[in-house]
Amino acid sequence: MSTNARSVASRLSSSGFIRTQGFIGGKWVDAYDGKTIEVYNPATGEVITNVACMGGRETKDAITSAHNTFLSWSKLTAAERSRCLRKWFDLIMANKEELGQLMTLEQGKPLDEAMGEVTYGASYIEFYAEEAKRVYGDIIPAALPDRRLFVMKQPVGVVGAITPWNFPLAMITRKVAPALACGCTVVIKPSELTPLTALAAAELSIQAGIPPGAVNVVMGSASDIGEALLASPQVRKITFTGSTTVGKKLMAGAAETVKKVSLELGGNAPCIIFDDADLDVALKGTMATKFRNSGQTCVCANRILVQEGIYDKFSIAFSKAVESMKVGDGFVEGVAQGPIINDSALHKVESFVQDAISKGAKVLIGGKRHSLGMTFYEPTVIGDVKSEMLLAREEVFGPVAPLMKFKTEEEAIHIANDTNAGLAAYMFTTSIKRSWRVSEALEYGLVGINEGQISTEVAPFGGMKQSGLGREGSKYGMDEYLEIKYVCLGNMS
Ligand code: NAP
C-alpha cells in the first residue's frame, strides 16, 4: 500500500474503526463456518483486511433478530426514534474523517470526494430523523352516516437492504434511515468489495442508542444472502441498489412471498448540450456529472449529445478540461480521479472503447490504461460516437465521455429516450421554454438543467422504465417503508 494508505489503515485498525465481523442482534459475529473474504484497496491491489464471509444461516439469524426488535422498535414514539437517528447523524459527522478514509481505502475515490459522501450519506439520516415525526394518516368522509373512516400508516416490518460498492455509505443511509424512521428494522447486505464503511456505520448506530437487532449487517455470498432474504416471510420489503440484471432477479424472487420491492438500477444518462448553452456552465456541469467517482455512478452522463453548432467548440474545451485531471491514489493531494473498482470493470471499459474505435469513433483524449498501472484508466473523451456503439447503448461505468453530434431538438429527445434506462438526464440551454419542453419530453426520473450534480436528500431520487421502482430521499422516500391501513368504525349512530 502507499505510505499514506498503510498508515491510515493501521491507525483505523488500532482505533477499532475497522470491523471484520458481521453484525447480528447487536453482536459482532464471525461466519459460522469461519470463512473470510479479502477486502482490497483498489489503488494498490493490497489486502486491507479479511472480513467474515457469511451466507444463508447467518442471514436467517439476522432476520430473526430484526423481527424480534421490530416488535419493540415499531412501538416507540416517533420522537424517540427521531432522537436515535439524530444521534446517529451526529456520530457519523463526528467521525467524518475516519469514515472518509475508510471509504477511500476500500473504494478508491479521492479523499475529498469520500468525505463529501459521508456528509451526503449522513444528510439522509438527519432528514429522516425529522421526517419520522410526520407520518400522518387521514380521516375520510364516510358514505354512510353511522360510520367513521380512518387511514393510518404503519411500518412494513423487516427490510432487506442490498447495496453496491460505488457509494459505500450513502446507498445504505438513504434506505436504512427512512426504514428506521418509519419503525422498520433492517438486514443490510453491503457489497463484498466495500463492507468496511457499512460495518463502521453499524457500530455508530449502536453507539447512537439504536437498539441491538434494529440494524444488522451480513456480507459474503451474495446469492445465498439474497435467497435467504427473499425466502423469509418475515422480510416484508426488499430495497436494492445495483445492476438491472440483479434487480430483475430480486424482483422475480420477491414474488414468491409477495414482498414490497424498490429498485434503484442502472442508468444510461443523456447529457444534452444545446447550441444556446452557456459554454462555461455546460463544461462545468458535464465534468461534474461525468467524472465523479471515476465515472462509476448510476447518474453519470453516459452519452453527451452536443448540437452541431457548438460541437467543435465544446469538444475542444471539454477535452482540455479532461486532460488536466490528476489521476492517482485517492490519498494523494489534488487527485481528481481514483482507480476503477476492479479488473472486470476495467475490462468492460476497455472493451467498450475498442468497440467504438472499431466502428469509427475517434479518441480525442485518453483511451487507454493509465501509466500508473493497476486499474487506473486515463480520463477519456471519444468523439463521433454513434447510437449503435456499446458506449451509447449501455452504461460504461468508467471515466469515458462519449460525444454524439445532433442537429435538432427533436432528434436529441429521440436519441435520449432511445434506451431501456430512465434514471437521470441533463441538459444545458439558456432557453427557459426549451428547458420546460425538453424536461417534459424526457423519459427520466431525474432531470438536471444547467447543473450536473442534482442528488440531494430533500428531493426524490429514482428511475423510470428499467432503471427501477420507487423513490429514495425526500418525503416520498418514507412511503416505501409504510403500509396503508384503512380502519372502518361502524355502528356510530
Ligand atoms: P450488482 O452487481 O448488482 O451488485 C449490487 C449488490 O447486489 C451487491 O451488494 C452485490 O453483492 C449484490 N448481489 C449481486 N448478486 C446478487 C444476488 N444474486 N442476490 C442478492 N444480491 C446480489 O451491482 P454493482 O456492480 O455492485 O453496482 C453497479 C450498478 O449499480 C450499476 O448498474 C449502477 O448504475 C447501479 N447503481 C444504481 C444506483 C441508483 O440509485 N439507481 C446507484 C448506484 C449504483 P456483491 O457485491 O457482494 O457481489
Key terms:
single chain; 493 residues; alpha/beta; 7-stranded mixed β-sheet; 6-stranded mixed β-sheet; 20 strands; globular; binds NADP nicotinamide-adenine-dinucleotide phosphate
Note the gap between the termini. 77 Å
What integer value in Å does the Rg equal? 23 Å
| Class of secondary structure makeup | alpha/beta
Q: Could you say which overall geometry the principal axes of the C-alpha atoms support?
A: globular
Total helices: the number is: 16
Level of helix content?
A: 25-40%
Cofactors and ligands present?
NADP nicotinamide-adenine-dinucleotide phosphate
How much of the sequence lies in strands comes to: 15-25%
Strand order of the largest sheet: 14-15-16-13-12-17-18
Biggest beta sheet summary: 7 strands, mixed
How many β strands by DSSP? 20
- The averaged pLDDT comes out at 97
Low-confidence stretches: none
Detailed description of the structure:
- With 493 residues, the protein is of the alpha/beta class.
- Helix content is 40%, strand content 20%.
- The chain has 16 helices and 20 strands.
- The chain has helices at 3-14, 56-73, 78-94, 96-107, 111-131, 170-182, 195-207, 222-231, 244-254, 279-291, 311-323, 343-358, 390-393, 409-417, 432-441, 476-479; strands at residues 22-24, 27-29, 36-40, 47-52, 138-140, 148-155, 158-162, 185-189, 215-217, 235-241, 260-264, 269-273, 301-307, 362-365, 380-383, 400-406, 424-428, 446-449, 468-469, 482-489.
- The strands form five sheets. It has a seven-stranded mixed sheet with strand order 14-15-16-13-12-17-18, with helices on both faces. Strands 9-8-7-10-11-19 form a six-stranded mixed sheet, sandwiched between helices. It has a three-stranded antiparallel sheet with strand order 5-6-20, with no helix packed on it.
- α13 links the parallel β15 (380-383) and β16.
- α3 runs antiparallel to α6 (170-182) and α3 crosses α7.
- The termini are far apart.
- The mean pLDDT is 97.
- The structure holds NADP nicotinamide-adenine-dinucleotide phosphate.
- NADP nicotinamide-adenine-dinucleotide phosphate (NAP) binds at residues 162-166, 171, 189, 191-193, 222-223, 226, 241-243, 246, 249, 264-267, 298, 395, 423, 463, 468.
- NADP nicotinamide-adenine-dinucleotide phosphate binds at residues 162-166, 171, 189, 191-193, 222-223, 226, 241-243, 246, 249, 264-267, 298, 395, 423, 463, 468.
